[in-house]
């Protein structure tokens, strides 16, 4: 296992994410975690040098913290670093920080968390997180003083602007930041700009979704051939990890492994640090560009259309989310970001006047995309 320096400790560069733990055979209920399988995976991870485990209040509808805590409790506390998160993705939790934090310690069977995050800073919750009346930052800083949190950070699924807003206010307290980063999102979700921002502020980067929910675990035959020609002994998932080994500031990569074979494969990849050279980096980002081209609308965010919309809809932002939704085949990011908008700025507010289409240099059928997106998200007029 390779390790990354973080302050005065060494973290395994690969961490175990516990959002997609194996389920009991035949069950589709996300609370039905297969504890025996999970234990085998955690044991293998620890035996092979992984020392970072990431859970959250929400994962597996609350069961991930229980199972993670139960399994890790058989190990000495200094054998692993445990991370969990304050569930402020739900604004109803904003005034419950103390109650939830205490509950999390009990569920995880620990006296302290090594890493604690503001979970999912995004458009809808950023103002709540920053609102002093809820006292979330104060409470968490106090827990840090008391030794019940060793390191404080945040995760973000929101736009670059939202991240900047959060960092402007709380940046000096943030020791790390977890973002969605992979060779698709490098340009698609503005991940490159987020990486640049965090590097500028000297905030180490934790990565989630390195394989984009498994989408990058296999590629088309044509793309596989291209990569095989460059690195004959590297499998397709490992390209996603090698890409991340090439990005400055990346400290821990979390992979939500659902079975022992995936874990073994990833552990094998992390026996070595083999970042991509320039030609390889270009090849993988070209492949990403090709994948995006065939699966998304070609909006360049030129914004020629926005001043023509009688409803004041932020068309490029909606199309960005439309693309995210189409490329991912659903997921939670687009529905979450659309729900954070006022109803009269959502795609369902479009009246199909087509004024935008008359000026769009890409000739995108914007009104059709708005209608389709509204239908997919179940939005009402
Ligand atoms: S078609 Fe829809 S998005 Fe385009 S200008 Fe008209 S209302 Fe706005
Ligand atoms: S004019 Fe077309 S390409 Fe430009 S932002 Fe609007 S939809 Fe996108």
Descriptive overview:
- The structure is a single chain.
- The termini are far apart.
- The chain is globular, with a radius of gyration of 21 Å.
- Strand 1 and strand 2 form a beta hairpin.
- It is built from 16 helices and ten strands.
- It has 381 residues and is an alpha/beta fold.
- 39% of the residues are buried.
- Bound molecules: iron/sulfur cluster (2 copies).
Sequence-ordered SSE layout with sheet pairings:
Layout: E1 3-6, E2 9-12, E3 14-17, H1 35-47, E4 52-54, H2 63-72, E5 81-86, H3 97-108, E6 113-121, H4 126-130, H5 136-145, E7 149-156, H6 160-170, E8 176-180, H7 185-188, H8 191-200, E9 205-208, H9 221-230, H10 236-245, E10 250-255, H11 260-269, H12 278-295, H13 315-328, H14 333-339, H15 355-359, H16 366-377
Parallel strand pairs: 3-4, 3-10, 4-5, 5-6, 6-7, 7-8, 8-9, 9-10
Antiparallel strand pairs: 1-2
This protein binds iron/sulfur cluster (2 copies).
List keywords for this structure.
single chain, 381 residues, alpha/beta, two-stranded antiparallel sheet, 16 helices, 42% helix, globular, binds iron/sulfur cluster
């Amino acid at each position: 296992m390779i390790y990354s320096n973080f302050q005065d400790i060494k973290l395994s560069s690969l961490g175990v994410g516990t959002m997609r733990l194996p389920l009991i055979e035949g069950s589709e209920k996300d609370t039905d975690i297969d504890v025996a399988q999970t234990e085998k995976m955690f044991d293998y991870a620890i035996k092979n040098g992984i020392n970072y485990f990431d859970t959250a209040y929400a994962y597996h509808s609350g069961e991930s913290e229980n199972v993670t805590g139960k399994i890790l409790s058989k190990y000495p506390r200094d054998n692993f670093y445990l991370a969990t998160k304050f569930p402020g993705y739900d604004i109803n939790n904003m005034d419950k920080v103390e109650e939830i934090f205490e509950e999390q310690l009990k569920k995880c069977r620990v006296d302290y968390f090594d890493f604690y995050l503001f979970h999912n800073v995004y458009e809808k919750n950023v103002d709540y997180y920053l609102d002093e009346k809820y006292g979330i930052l104060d409470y968490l800083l106090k827990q840090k003083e008391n030794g019940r949190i060793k390191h404080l950070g945040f995760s973000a699924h929101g736009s670059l602007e939202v991240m900047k807003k959060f960092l402007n206010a709380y940046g000096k307290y943030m020791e790390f930041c977890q973002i969605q980063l992979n060779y698709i999102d490098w340009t698609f979700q503005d991940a490159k700009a987020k990486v640049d921002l965090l590097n500028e502020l000297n905030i180490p980067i934790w990565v989630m979704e390195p394989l984009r929910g498994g989408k990058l675990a296999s590629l088309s035959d044509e793309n596989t051939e291209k990569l095989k020609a460059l690195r004959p002994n590297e499998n397709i998932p490992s390209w996603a990890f090698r890409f991340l080994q090439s990005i400055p500031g990346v400290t821990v990569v979390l992979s939500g492994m659902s079975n022992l074979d995936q874990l073994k494969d990833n552990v094998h990849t992390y026996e070595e640090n083999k970042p991509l050279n320039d030609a390889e980096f270009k090849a993988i980002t070209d492949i990403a560009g090709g994948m995006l081209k065939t699966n998304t609308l070609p909006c360049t965010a030129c914004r020629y259309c926005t001043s023509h919309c009688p409803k004041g809809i932020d068309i490029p932002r909606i199309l960005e989310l439309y693309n995210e939704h189409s490329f991912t085949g659903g997921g939670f990011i687009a529905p979450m970001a659309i729900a954070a908008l006022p109803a009269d700025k959502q795609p369902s507010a479009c009246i199909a006047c087509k004024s935008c289409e008359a000026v769009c240099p890409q000739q995108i059928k914007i009104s059709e995309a708005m209608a389709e997106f509204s239908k997919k998200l179940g939005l009402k007029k």
